[in-house]
């Protein structure tokens, strides 16, 4: 589940925002808190923190504690003429060398010395992406050969084990037992 190039799977950037805004500010490091998410980030919590989900049912478990995007997506968007920088798409962790979208549900991502994130599903890109930069929503949505929607805007996870995460930290992938379940939007 790592890219075919020789580069190690690693964290390129970490970001957080204490307020409900689309983009997050890059930080030197973030602390992941078990069962909660990124310390000081508005989406941290045991129950849902995304405003639309809170409005629907505030008692839902928070399966979106940490948002991860692969830097290869930013490369693709920037090659298409968009100016997208780390944190711009609201991700907490920007990785390189990990095929995030190919991971099955339940994958554990060991990040840095102690942190572990369990992958819960795909981020469902919304109109906020289009409001951030016109054309980006279409660029992060596609269709596969069967006509199914392909969501490329990253994945979501929950914090299993806390720890500090910073740029350059390595990412080790631990797949769940078979049979694997493909990611769906959460």
Automatic annotation (TrEMBL):
Pfam families: MOSC. Residues 25-174 form the MOSC domain. InterPro entries: MoCF_Sase_C, MOSC_domain, Pyrv_Knase-like_insert_dom_sf. This is MOSC domain-containing protein. It comes from Deinococcus oregonensis.
């Amino acid at each position: 589940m790592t890219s075919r190039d020789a580069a190690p799977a690693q964290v390129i950037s970490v970001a957080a925002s204490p307020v409900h805004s689309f983009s997050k500010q890059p930080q030197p490091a973030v602390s992941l808190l078990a069962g909660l998410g990124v310390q000081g980030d508005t989406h941290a919590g045991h129950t849902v923190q995304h405003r639309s989900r809170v409005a629907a049912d505030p008692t839902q478990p928070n399966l979106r504690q940490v948002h991860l995007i692969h830097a290869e997506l930013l490369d693709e968007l920037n090659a298409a003429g968009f100016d997208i920088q780390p944190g711009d798409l609201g991700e907490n962790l920007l990785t390189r060398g990990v095929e995030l979208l190919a991971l099955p549900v339940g994958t554990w991502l060991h990040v840095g010395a102690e942190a572990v994130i369990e992958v819960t599903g795909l981020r469902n890109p919304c109109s906020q992406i289009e409001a951030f930069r016109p054309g980006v929503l279409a660029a992060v949505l596609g269709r596969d050969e069967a006509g199914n929607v392909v969501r490329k805007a990253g994945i979501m996870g929950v914090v299993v084990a806390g720890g500090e995460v910073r740029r350059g930290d390595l990412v080790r992938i631990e797949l769940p037992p078979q049979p694997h379940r493909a990611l769906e939007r959460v």
